[in-house]
Amino acid sequence: MSLNLKSQIANLESGEYECLANLNIYDSLECTRLATQAQAGRHLWVTSKNDVEKHLSEAMRDSAIDTSVQVCLCEDDYPGWLSVADLVLLQIATTPYQAKSFSESEIKKLLPEVIAFTHKAMQQPNYYLWGGTVGPNYDCSGLIQAAFRSVGICLPRDAYQQEDFTQPIDLALVTPGDLVFFGTPQKATHVGLYLGDGYYIHSSGKDKGRNGIGIDILSEQGDEVSQSYYQQLRGAGRVVKSYESKGIRR
Question: What are the residue boundaries of the NlpC/P60 domain, all occurrences included (predicted)?
Fold first, then answer.
């Protein structure tokens, strides 16, 4: 273990921190696959120092390329691993994270701004990034989460979580700003933002997608990409509240 690494761990305390820059959060201690991202200003919870040292010892024993600490994002309770090299980009939070409450009518008034965010994101050069929640590259639920967060509304991280969080809406009654969900009969694996007149905007991958943000139509009459997603259509949901952190500390 390097002296610099020892110094970082020695100064680390468990607790709530604020991100000073956009950070990558990974799905394992090896830090090889992105799980999500934390935009500058977001808060996260760092595990205890004893657990940090334990994880580091395990990582070194297993010859992991990167050492990391386990964290949980305060905004959406999303767990993951942060590279030790990024600890310098954290500062102790002076005030605890607290989600802002919104009424359903307040959210409805903000939906044009949410939609505008996705259009602006589409105009930037971008590609589909698994785990991406910070522009210019997003995954499907990352784009939706970022769009609503741009107006202060918090949503859970993944598509299936967003489906569970929203109020179910009959597809015949969808209005601009509602979410449309795709996947298998068992689980939502993809999400888009409804624009009106049958169209929705989403970030889709390379496989039968657009490798980035694009607009498709909920119809069997669309092009190959639209048809592929239409065949996986599960339903729609309306955002009627802002997610409130459960205070999970992992």
Answer: 108-241
Torsion, Cα 11 17 19 20, to 10 degrees, reads -60
Verdict on whether the full-model pTM lies above 0.85: yes
Round to whole Å and give the CA distance between 111 and 102.
12
Are residues 84 and 55 in contact, defined by beta-carbon separation less than 8 angstroms? Answer: no
Give the separation between CA 115 and CA 196, rounded to whole angstroms.
11
Question: Phi/psi at 103 (nearest 5 deg)?
Answer: -85, 165
Q: In angstroms, how far apart are the furthest CA atoms of the chain?
A: 62
**Ranges of H-type helices in the chain:** 3-10, 49-61, 104-123, 140-149, 159-165, 224-230
Mean pLDDT of 205-213: 94
Average pLDDT score, the chain: 90
Residue from 117, 109, 142 nearest 239 by CA: 109
CA distances 178 to 80, 94, 147, 163, 193, Å, are: 28, 35, 12, 11, 6
C-alpha dihedral (171, 222, 132, 164), degrees to nearest 10:
20
pLDDT grade for 208, boundaries at 50, 70 and 90: confident
What sign has the CA pseudo-torsion 216, 205, 236, 103? negative
> Which residues, listed in sequence order, are joined to residue 179 by a DSSP beta bridge?
193, 237
Burial class (CB in 10 A: 0-12, 13-18, 19+), 211: middle
For the segment 10-40, what is each residue's pLDDT rounded down to a tens digit?
Answer: 566 789 999 999 999 999 999 999 999 999 9
